[in-house]
Design goal:
It is a single chain. This protein is of the alpha+beta class. The protein has four domains: 220 residues, ATPase, nucleotide binding domain (Nucleotidyltransferase, domain 5, 2-Layer Sandwich); 106 residues, Nucleotidyltransferase, domain 5 (2-Layer Sandwich); 73 residues, no CATH class; 80 residues, 2-Layer Sandwich (Gyrase A, domain 2). The chain has 13 helices and 21 strands. α5 packs across α9.
């Protein structure tokens, strides 16, 4: 494990991490030859670890030896987290590009719910595989510039069996996958975060990997097109390829990419970045010789993040992991949304923490009441015994002092017993909120602002109409005033459920 300082774009990042009580989420990049993990800690430093894999463990991004793959993941986890029982490590998983089919499509600029319906309909139309056997997702990448204001969305598909295999293996190995994406998407996010690309220009990132070539077209600082070329298409399909054959293959595919960019986007490529371990500079020079007008250079993260270029996918996923889950609107190729996965993980963690706290408090109270009971029994026995004794006149004052001390102690015990009663004063408020929520809403979190006295309520509902009914009932409650539901915090998930925030002030506890 190692640490490196990364330049932060936002001064608010440290403040967010200070007040954010949730566990950190790292980025885990998986390919045929290695596992790479990166996490951005609260001081904007990179915590990183990697593990090189033997041949045949993973082939074309698919698990071939489950037992050895699990052992490798457990070894990697031991590098990044102390051995504390069943502690889980939250990760954004980045899989190989050859597993993914992605495509840009346009939809009208609609409201969120209608936009989701239109996006899903388009995904169903362009899917290259049976939707029942795949996971699919989308994210917004820009707005069309052809005079018709439409949103440009990037859709992605992957066979669900591949994802399910990886998710189950990761969970068995002590990881908690929050989202699944692919490496070109992760890499482009890292380039945007580090300001390597400009939103006004179009770029191509060429990744020369063990399994083949991958071309990522970058526009508006977003991934617009992803094209994978397998080495199995070169020569005999073996893993050893002569450099001259590699050069010719790269030139041929670059010509195709240039023609595609010109026809699809009506623009030229500003620069091509080459990611190739040990060959980046040589390949970039060959491209420059073959295409003199094309600016080509070896891609590097050393000056900005202190990492080799092939760590870009893990870094990009770590950057996503540092975002609040409410702001994570990126592609996630698994069965549930990012917020649902993270909420489940945090709910289990919170329940475990409260269970431990409850046991500690219960043990403390047991000791306190047990000790009090023993002491009171002894005091009572002494008092009963003292009643059979004829006190001399000069001992009456001492007896009165002892009785006063016993009375004082009893008063303290009664004060401790009454503390529990005082703690439940606010319970009518929670009962009222649960009553108003009914089956229309699930209360996720309630907090207060000490200065203004405003109550902030985080909730979710199976549908938008059910959330509105709940808010209307809050507004109709006379003990609540200034009930507001900010639309900016209303999030509609792909399954139609909504997550929202309601703020109000409590004017009376007489519910």
């Amino acid at each position: 494990m190692a640490e490196t300082t990364i330049k932060s774009r936002s001064k608010l990042g440290a403040l967010w991490r200070l007040i954010n009580p949730f566990k950190p989420v790292g980025g885990l990049s998986i390919n045929d030859s290695s596992l790479k993990y990166v996490r951005i800690d609260e001081n904007n430093r990179l915590v990183k670890a990697s593990l090189r894999l033997p041949p045949g463990l993973i082939e074309d991004g698919k698990i071939k030896n489950r037992d050895l793959a699990k052992q490798a993941l457990e070894t990697l986890k031991s590098y990044i987290a102390p051995p504390r029982g069943d502690r889980r490590t939250n990760v954004i998983v980045s899989l190989q590009d050859n597993l993914i089919y992605s495509r840009i499509f346009n939809v009208p600029n609609l409201e969120e719910k209608a936009l989701e319906e239109a996006a899903v309909l388009n995904l169903q139309m362009i899917s290259p595989i049976d939707l029942k056997q795949s996971y699919y997702s989308y994210q917004s990448v820009g707005i069309t510039a052809n005079g018709v204001r439409q949103l440009e969305l990037l859709g992605a598909f992957i066979p669900n069996g591949i994802v399910d295999d990886w998710l189950s293996l990761l969970r068995e190995s002590g990881f908690s996958p929050i989202a699944v994406e692919f490496q070109s998407l992760s890499m482009v996010r890292a380039m945007d975060y580090l300001k390597i690309t400009d939103p006004k220009s179009t770029y191509v990132a060429l990744v020369v990997a063990a399994d083949g070539l991958n071309f990522a077209i970058i526009k508006n600082n977003n991934l617009y097109f992803n094209y994978f070329y397998s080495w199995k298409s070169v020569g005999s399909g073996g893993r050893q390829i002569a450099f001259t054959d590699l050069e010719q293959t790269i030139f041929t595919e670059i010509e195709r990419v240039l023609n595609f960019v010109g026809a699809r986007f009506g623009t030229s490529i500003s620069r091509i970045f080459v990611v190739a371990e040990g060959l980046g500079a040589k390949i970039a020079a060959s491209i420059k010789t073959r295409f003199p007008r094309l600016d080509s250079q070896e891609f590097s993260l050393m000056s900005s993040a202190g990492l080799p270029a092939d760590w870009a996918p893990a870094l990009g996923s770590a950057i996503r992991g540092a975002l609040p889950r409410s702001k994570d609107q990126f592609i996630s190729l698994n069965s549930i949304t990012v917020r649902e996965e993270y909420f489940q993980e945090q709910s289990l963690s919170l329940a475990s923490a409260w269970r431990s706290a409850f046991l500690v408090v219960l043990a403390f109270l047991a000791v306190l009441y047990g000790g009090s009971d023993l002491l009171l029994r002894r005091v009572k026995e002494d008092l009963v015994a003292s009643q059979t004794i004829n006190f001399p006149v000069n001992e009456n004052q001492e007896y009165a002092e002892l009785k006063a001390q016993a009375d004082g102690f009893n008063a303290l015990v009664n004060l401790v017993a009454s503390a529990k009663v005082r703690e439940t004063v606010i319970s009518p408020f929670f009962r009222k909120i649960r009553e108003l929520a009914g089956t229309d809403a699930t209360i996720l979190r309630i907090s207060t602002q000490p200065v203004s006295g405003t109550v902030i309520l985080n909730a979710s509902s199976p549908s938008l109409d059910m959330s509105r009914r709940f808010v209307d009932r809050l507004k109709a409650t006379p003990q609540l005033q200034s009930v507001e539901q900010p639309l900016a915090n209303l999030v509609v998930d792909p399954d139609g459920s909504v997550t929202f925030i309601v703020s109000f002030k409590v004017t009376s506890q007489n519910f």
